Structures are given as structure tokens and as C-alpha cells.
């Protein structure tokens, strides 16, 4: 039996599609108000795209049923806009992080929405969002800057989309580059500014990631210690990451300031980490070890941190210029797959 259709000029609107539009709008409203906002938005976007891409909407006006559908499509369009604007931020701890709600990362961000989350990101150093599909991850990443591809991580690149790394559990013995407080690739001359991590497959329990605010680690030091650190530089190298990747550590160690000034916020933060910082310039080995021990311990004090328990669909973005992170490996051989993109940064000053 042929489906019933409204006669609509250049193309026909199946009754089933008109009913779907009506049902989807009602269901999406329910989902939205019960907190399942991403789901609601995705449903509406699907149906909206079907109508706006597949139809000459002007021609829909020619029949009564179609006029209703046209009004409904229009209202779905404005609901989508309103949903996009209902961005709410909730701080994750007193020290670091914000949860961004009411924002769908998958469909591109207009400039004013981007400006809102950019500012929140600068204020909170990291944020949690939801549902970034693999194809959308690079587009979202490009909003923040150029993608950085590093030889050290080449073996993690996804062949069909090498800007995205697939970080897959290889067991605890291989977790020594992530189960350690670090700022990504900070041994490079111009280390990455940001990273975006989207959960693909999560273990049933465990596999949290911790973040620490390095502005606070610096700002809460005594004036005497701040004076001592002024102008100090440290040597950082990628030997551990090269060992992990099974490649030669070709890059020479880099000297970076121990206290780094963030290029956008102009705030100062500690910039040392146990994974990549070898020594502090101009000090004896014992002095350097003593000072680094103190600074590294301080940099991850619990009151500067947030521990993220991953949930399906989570996306976390962090600023490597003012945070450290640590991936807790407590899930044995369980499958854990994360998609990672990396955004280029500048020479630390
Ligand atoms: O897998 C994680 O939780 C984070 C790993 C990490 O250090 C990174 O992706 O830079
Ligand atoms: Fe990392």
C-alpha cells in the first residue's frame, strides 16, 4: 500500500513524517525538561534538518496540513536556537573545572556561543561537555586553534583521521606516561595549548582522570618562594614518552620557565611536572631535586584538584598552560578507549 501523502508541490510530505515531526517535538520537550538536553536537541536537529534540507519550505505553505508542519518546523528551529543559548555552567570543585550544560558540541558553534565557552574555559582551566561524535571532534578542535601532530604520538593516530588519536588501554605497565602528573608534551619547544578527550569505551569502574590548577599552586606560595622562583628555568625532556612510543628521543631537552605566564589570562602558574621536568637550571643536582620535589608535590595538592569520573558521552577539554592532569590506572585489562585531539600552543614565557 502506498503511504498517504499531502500534495505539496515539488515534493510530497509523507503523513508519517508529519506525525513524526509532531511526536518528536512533544517528546523532545519532555526530555529537555527532565534534563536529557543533548538527546532532546539531537532529536530536534535530526527532524529539523530533514525538513529544511529536504524541502522548499515555502512550498509547504500550500496545504493546511503543510502549513501546520511549516509552523512546527519554524518553532523547532527557534527551539534549537534557544536550547543552544541556554548554556549553564556549574563549577566542578572550588579549585578547577566547570560543567557546561545546555550546549551541543556536535553541530558547530556560532561565534557568540563560542565566546561564552572560551571565557568559561579561561576562567576554569578545564570543562566538561557531552557528546562529541568522532567526526565533529576535529571541527570543534579547529575552533580553538591548529591541531598539533607530534611524532611521539604518531602510532595513536586514527588512519582515516590522523588529527584524532585513539588512546587505548595497553595495561598498567604502559600507563607510565599518563599515570603521572603532567602537562602534555611540555618538553617541546612550543608545547600544546589544549587537549580534548572524548570517551568512547569506558571500563565498568575506574579510569578517572585528575586535574590540578597550577595558578593556585603558584598563587598560594609564600612571597619568599615566589621571589626564589622568579626567573628560574627548568630543563624538560621527552625520554619517557619516547620509550612508551618505542621511538628515538630525537628532540633536544628544552628550557622553560618554572613559573609561566598564561598568554591569554596573563596569570602566573607553576610549570613543572614529574613526567618531563629533568632539572632546574643553575642549581646543583641536590638543590634541583629538592626544589622539584617540593614544587611537584605542591602542584597536585588535593585542594587544587578535580577528579573526573567518566560517564558515557563525556568530553573533557583542558588547558595545558595552567593545569596538570593524571590518568588513574585502576582498571586492569578492561577496555578503555578515548579519542584525543591536541591544539598547538606557543613558546612558554
Ligand atoms: O586517558 C586519560 O584519562 C588521560 C590521558 C592523558 O594523559 C592524555 O590524554 O593526555
Ligand atoms: Fe596527558
Description:
The protein is α+β, with helices and mostly antiparallel strands. The chain folds into 2 domains: 5-83; 88-343, Double-stranded beta-helix, CATH 3.60.130. It is 35% helix and 23% strand. It is built from 10 helices and 18 strands. The protein has helices spanning 15-33, 37-54, 57-60, 64-85, 111-124, 134-142, 214-219, 223-229, 239-245, 285-299; strands spanning 5-6, 13-14, 88-91, 98-101, 126-130, 157-158, 161-168, 194-201, 209-213, 233-236, 254-257, 259-261, 268-270, 277-280, 305-308, 314-319, 323-327, 337-343. The strands form 5 sheets. An 8-stranded mixed β-sheet has the order 3-4-5-16-8-18-7-6, covered by helices on one side. The longest helix is centred in the N-terminal third of the chain and has 22 residues, at 64-85. 36% of the residues are buried.
Determine the structural class based on helices, strands and strand pairing: alpha+beta
Order of helices and strands: EEHHHHEEHEHEEEEHHEHEEEEHEEEE
Architecture of the largest domain, CATH level 2?
A: 4-Layer Sandwich
CATH superfamily of the largest domain, by name, is Clavaminate synthase-like
Biggest β-sheet description: 8 strands, mixed
Gyration radius (Cα, Å) is 24 Å
Number of helices: 10
CATH topology of the largest domain: Double-stranded beta-helix
Mean pLDDT: 87
CATH class of the largest domain: Alpha Beta
Number of domains: 2
Q: How many beta-strand elements?
A: 18
- Low-pLDDT stretches are 1-11
**Residue share in helices?**
25-40%
Cross-sheet strand order for the largest sheet: 3-4-5-16-8-18-7-6
